Amino acid sequence: MGDAARFVRAALARSAFARLVLAFVALAASGLAGGATPAAAQTAGTPGRFDHYVLSLSWSPTYCESAGNRADPAQCRSARPFAFVVHGLWPQNAVGWPEDCQKPAPFVPEPVVRSMLDLMPSRRLIIHEWRKHGTCAGLDPTAYFDLVRKARAAVTIPTEYRQLDTYKMVSPDEVEASFLDANPGLDAGMIAVTCDSRRLHEVRICLDKSLGFTSCADVDKRACRTPRVVMPPMRGG
After folding, report:
1. Helix crossing, 141-153 with 123-132: angle to 10°?
2. How many CA atoms lie within 13 A of 105 on its CB side?
């Protein structure tokens, strides 16, 4: 065999080996990512199989301001002065959460949608939350949204966050403390305040299947770490 032929064969061998190594590294990285973030990897589930709920209360003015022209006008036009609204009631596990447990999702009756608009002021939001999270609760749409209303009634919004007419700088800790004061039995391991780099987004409260407050370390560890954030004002009435 000539030198040229030997060179070609050696190059091909190195190339094949390199492809094998790269494939192995990609597979290993995929497995490590799944292990490190089990919540993100858990994209489907079985209806009714979960550990507890998360009631997510969204500061509506943050959504409206950050979404801009993409915001749902049903929630964000100037005559819709919402403060904390229900983002969703999410079945949750000790680590991670189930999603999209029924495909296609059962239809939500129109009277049920209309009945929820005082708590979840967007038809689009109601349908999205049912499909992504509600289908994992093991309930039909009517029973699930009845439970959402009961969960919301189980939480008292602190007085200082029911009406906000100007921008307010807060720390996540003081918002959390206000919710703890307003809700006997709620403690710091049962609640998480979330934010982006400058705005308060949500207050997430963990509830057991009987809608009592419960601990949730996996939710709490995702809380906002920014020292000070802004709460945009409510829109005009």
Report:
1. 110
2. 25
- DSSP H helices in the chain: 3-36, 38-41, 60-67, 73-76, 110-115, 123-132, 141-153, 172-182, 217-220
Tokens of 87: 């983002």
The residue written with tokens 């904390």 in the block is: 84
Q: What is the pLDDT along the chain (237 residues), one digit of tens a residue?
A: 555 445 435 544 454 444 443 343 333 333 333 333 334 435 578 999 999 999 999 999 999 999 989 999 989 987 778 999 999 999 999 999 999 999 999 999 999 999 999 999 999 999 999 999 999 999 999 999 999 999 999 999 999 999 999 999 999 999 999 999 999 999 999 999 999 989 999 999 999 999 999 999 999 999 999 999 999 999 764
Catalytic residues: 87, 129, 133
N- to C-terminal Cα separation, the chain: 87
Tokens at 23, concatenated: 């494939």
Going edge to edge, which strands form the sheet with 200-207?
A: 84-92, 52-59, 200-207, 191-195
Decide: helix, strand or coil at residue 62: helix
Q: What sign for the dihedral angle of Cα 186, 198, 77, 233? A: positive
- Tokens 């009517």: give the residue: 142
